[in-house]
Amino acid sequence: MSVTAIAFLAAYFGCLLKAFTKKPIWGLYAYLIAFYAHPIARWWGSSLPELRWSLMAALVTLLALMLHRSEKKHAWFEFKETKLYALFLVFLLLQYIWALNTSFHSIFVQLAVKYLILIFLIQGCIKTKSDVIGFIAANICGALYFAYLGAGYPGGRLEGIGGPSIESSNGLGQHLSILLVFSSYLLFIKLGKYKPLLILAIIFILNTIMLTQSRGSIVALGLTGIVSLYYIPKGYKKHFMGLATLGVIAFALLIGPQILERFQGVEKNESGEISDSSARSRLVIISAQYEMFKERPLFGQGHRTTLILSPYFIPQEYMTTVKNGEQAVSRRASHNFIMGMLTDHGIIGLGIYILIVITIAKHLFRLKKHNESQADSDLIVIQTGLCLAFLCYLFAGLFSNNKIYEIAVWLIAIIPMVDHLIKKSVMDNKEC
């Protein structure tokens, strides 16, 4: 057994043990270890028993939450985001009646069930500001593992090192971009000797994003950075502008010629066409998806509708050949979150998700009001980063269908919890 496998087992089972002896959140850390390390896909994982590592961590965390009855618990459906996500799941179950392919649809339904359970676990485990910081720190450690794997990549676009749902270069780039946004806001709170380490970690994560050469991720980061100028936490303007300047410099130094070439491919040639075939195909796919959407606009046609109907709506030159058993078939999947939601789940499905987005947006808008109150300033800073990270996810979705990305569900779970902690800090300060 390799040293890496031994280290994984020690960290994983050590966290599960602490979930019982200390706090349930350690079970959540074990889940994140399984997510980022993903032993099933690693060479060192072949020496480990074939276990459902993520499922085991989730079950142990749930059991630990039940055993720690002395702690105050939140109701399962206390927050509006949780209720809306549960409603979205109910709609997905109803879609079985008319889904084009129930096998494909089952995959997303199973993911949605898992994600709803994750929301309950995250909201049950996170009780304090330290828990929020710990959760973010655990994600940073996972991202650094990706950075370590990326350092030894032979060349080309970095892909295949990510965990579930983020194996592709675009998926990995988007996950790390979202993570980079909320991690960066830890720089505005008191970390003492850990702040230089956090700065180094952010640089490594940014470099790994560049290695993915994901244009959507880079553009999403840029757009989020622009919006963040309007949500500078009170009292941190000079600090914010200084760190933002350093971030722009690091961005300029790390961006490579391959990324610049990919962006230049989006420019139109003398004939008025976009030079890059990948960028050009996305516009063709969106046009075809609109036609698919018109067939069942209200209810959608189930998960992966674009992939199923692509041979009938998308010209052959824009199709991708994939193997289906021993046969080669031409298909094309969605590359846009909004159009993917519309074709898959119709106006109703997208409408429910938009309600989730609006609810999270209200948390962001409310931060300016909290700045004038007696709320914990660290929590306000952290919440700003989390809300902007969700915005980064939405921006990235304009360039890729990222509806299955797990990190978005983590944000849906943790943002209302932090809002609850902010309100609690206001009440505590008033009592004092």
Biggest β-sheet strands, sense, barrel: 2 strands, antiparallel
Spatial arrangement of strands, main beta sheet: 1-2
Average pLDDT, rounded to a whole number, is 88
Low-confidence stretches: none
Q: What is the overall number of helices?
A: 16
Count of distinct strands: 2
Helix content: 55-70%
Output the helix-strand order.
HHHHHHHHHHHHHEEHHH
Instruction: Give the overall silhouette.
Output: globular
SSE arrangement:
Elements: H1 3-21, H2 25-37, H3 53-67, H4 80-94, H5 102-125, H6 129-151, H7 169-184, H8 195-212, H9 215-228, H10 237-254, H11 257-264, H12 277-295, H13 305-313, E1 320-324, E2 327-331, H14 337-371, H15 377-396, H16 406-431
Antiparallel strand pairs: 1-2
Can you walk me through this structure?
- By secondary structure, this protein is an all-alpha fold.
- Helix content is 68%, strand content 2%.
- It contains 16 helices and two strands.
- It has a two-stranded antiparallel ribbon.
- Helix 6 crosses helix 7 and helix 12 packs across helix 13.
- It is globular.
- It starts with a helix and ends with a helix.
- The model has no long low-confidence stretch (mean pLDDT 88).
What's the quick description here?
This protein is mainly α and 432 residues long.
Task: Label this structure with key terms.
432 residues, mainly alpha, two-stranded antiparallel sheet, 16 helices, 2 strands, globular
